[in-house]
Amino acid sequence: MKIKGFFLISLIFISAIGLSVTAFYSKDGLYLPYWSNVLDRPILSTVLTAAADGVYPWSPDAPVSKTQTDAQVEKENNINNNTSKPENTSDIPNVPKDDRKKFTTVDDSYFEDALFIGDSRMVGLSEYCEALDTRATFYAKKSLTIYDIRDKEWIQTENGKKITLWEALEGQQFTKIYIMVGINEIGIGEPETFRDAYKEVVDAIMASQPNAIIYINSIMHVNKEKNDNDELYNNTNIEARNEAIKQLADEKKIFYININEAVDDEEGNLNSEWTSDGVHLKGAYYEPWHLYLLSHAIV
């Protein structure tokens, strides 16, 4: 029995090493949505978290189609760097021009009854933008997806219990709600599937928070190096999903804000000097996002 136990422990140990090595070499591919700094959590947890979502070492990367419309190409070619002008909403579909509300500039007190929901990029906004973190409420988590928001218990309470967003919203009322997810869903389904799940979440939030304005933040682009070399996590695929969720805006209670206008370079890629991994902003460069929110508010 001792020998069998020894072999069993050895097998578990070897398997853990093998899975960790697999996760490390696939950190820019299959496991990108689940990867985090090894100082934050063990590499093995990346594999286990992915497995909980049905992603295994042998799963294909299944890139999204790179097909891009002429309108998308023209839009990407005309993105301006760090503009503070209100976004042109003429391409918001099915919204009569006369019915659209206009963006205006506010101060930080605007965020005192705001809720921010999102993935690791939203986590960064909380960590590096004190003006927002000290005023607003953040429900943000690394590797979060729209499907997690819709279906899972992912918000950790003070007693350590995890609850759904819908449980967390009970007894609370916000007047502004900002959402940013999408980079972790690039390899899951099609843009239309993503949009439909996003709509379910927005509809449920509106039912729970009837007085809230909902801001759909565009999915942030990746930098040029990643865009040019990654068949999955590139700006063509990101823009396909941005175009899909833009359709949810009604310009009355739901607004689409293109934060890429604040963080892109002249070519329409995430500014390479502002990121260390091609995906996330460095701490000092969350401020342009903050300033963009201040100049794109509905009163």
Which features would summarize this protein structure in a list?
single chain; 299 residues; Rossmann fold; 2 domains; five-stranded parallel β-sheet; 7 strands; 38% helix
How does this structure look, described?
It is a single chain. This protein is α/β, with parallel strands linked by helices and 299 residues long. The protein contains 12 helices and 7 strands. The chain has helices at residues 2-25, 43-52, 70-77, 120-128, 130-133, 146-151, 165-169, 191-208, 224-229, 235-246, 260-263, 287-295; strands at residues 114-118, 137-140, 155-156, 162-163, 176-180, 213-217, 254-257. It has a 5-stranded parallel β-sheet, covered by helices on one side. Strands 3-4 form a two-stranded antiparallel sheet. Helix 1 (2-25) packs across helix 2 and helix 8 (191-208) crosses helix 10. The termini are far apart.
Number of strands: 7
CATH architecture of the largest domain: 3-Layer(aba) Sandwich
Mean pLDDT over the residues = 82
List segments where confidence is low: pLDDT < 50 over at least 5 consecutive residues: 60-90
Shape: globular
CATH topology of the largest domain: Rossmann fold
CATH class of the largest domain: Alpha Beta
Number of domains: 2
Element pattern in H and E: HHHEHHEHEEHEHEHHEHH
Largest sheet: 5 strands, parallel
